[in-house]
Amino acid sequence: MLVVKFGGTSVGDAEAIERVATIVRARLARRPIVVVSAMAGVTNQLLSLAHAAANGGLLAALDAIGDLKQRHTVTAERLLGAPAPQGIISELDALLRELASLAEALATLGFVTPRSLDAIAAIGERLSAPLVTALLLARGIPASLVDARRVIRTDSHFTQAAPDLPAIRQAVFDEVVPVVARDEVPVLGGFIGSNERGVTTTLGRGGSDFSAALIGAALRADAIEIWTDVDGMLTADPRVIPEARRIEQVTFDEAAELASFGAKVLHPSTIAPAVRDGVPVFVFNSRRPADGGGGTRIALDAPRRGVSAIAAKRGVPLVSVRTAEMLLAHGFLRRVFEVFERHRTSVDLVSTSEVSISVTPDDVARLDDVIADLRPLGEVQVQWDCGVIAVVGTGLADGGQYMARAFAALGDTPVHMASLSASGLNLSLVVDGQRVVDTMRRLHAAFFGDGAAA
Ligand code: ADP
Ligand code: ASP
Ligand code: MG
Asked: Domain residues of the chain, as ranges?
């Protein structure tokens, strides 16, 4: 079996959805399970209409719902002929009515909650999945819609729910496998799930990749294919480095580092379920249905390279705690990390000296509380607008040449912190936010530019 996931642009309009059918048809013998995102831009529109409704803008929110209705109906008509079949039209209408009553409820309430945001955000995938199912059926591909909320069981951490793996495995066998056994293609919305009481949750932005990986791992699928709008994982974000090149193969470890340091092409949690069961992940370009633009294979084994790719994350604060107490004392680091743990804030990078520790938190949502609790431990300094650049490669620490090249490329760029993981996989550099793009360019040119022997 094969899990085939299509991102927002890959289901973004009628032509894109038509390509989905071509890609799925070519895989029928491998028994595909299809996971789809909301149409491109829809999740953002849903979240902003939720905020508008809660902040006195109900009319604007209802207008936005009208636009969503128009876009989905027009797409259905282009794919299935006008007027579109009554079945799909009434399915879309029912979802849009549900959305309108959610918006009205928020307008009455006057504020949003994480739970209500999930109920609203989930509508995007609940709209796209029946549309894709209807098109597959219309093109003669036996397909069946499966409500992802019955499969992706999660905890109740709304907007960022954690999967319940045993429950998902059971649900995959109860809800998905029987469809495959009937020789039909199950189609599920990504990103969405439900808690143990059946209340709708989401896995966090970009979470459809994660849904695909969870289903792929539960099934011990032969592969998980992520179909998107670029030819694979590239040596850098092509929006920053237009000349970035496709990487044919990378290891799970490299891909996980790249995803968590800003390579948006994969949700950072995607790799974990695949690694656990050794299921390879492929990234392909859905605009090139025949060969996916070549694609990238992510697996346990891949050629060992000094540098495979460079990723960057912006808007990262650098938090430093300085205290003489740390000198020859023990227990200080524990106290610092306890503060982060208490506020459920994970830390990406750490560097210490005799009298100070600096960290970059992964998430700024609760940083004010973290800082307040750090103050009793020492003098706290925060540099708000930093960026982390991650230079990633399995052979990065083989000999000194790659490190030498990286530092030479930095020139006079001020670096606030540098950290080489002990595994020798990731060199992370913290620079000023406004230096991120320039630093990316320098590093990319040094490792992948003309004449660079990467
Ligand atoms: P989807 O909607 O298919 O999930 P995303 O927008 O989430 O697509 O992810 C694909 C985008 O990720 C690409 O268009 C590209 O701009 C961006 N990206 C960032 N870093 C990389 C990278 N190293 N390789 C490929 N794409 C990257
Ligand atoms: N539609 C969701 C988002 O935009 C999930 C996804 O596309 O992966 O975040
Ligand atoms: Mg994505």
From this structure: 2-229, 309-448
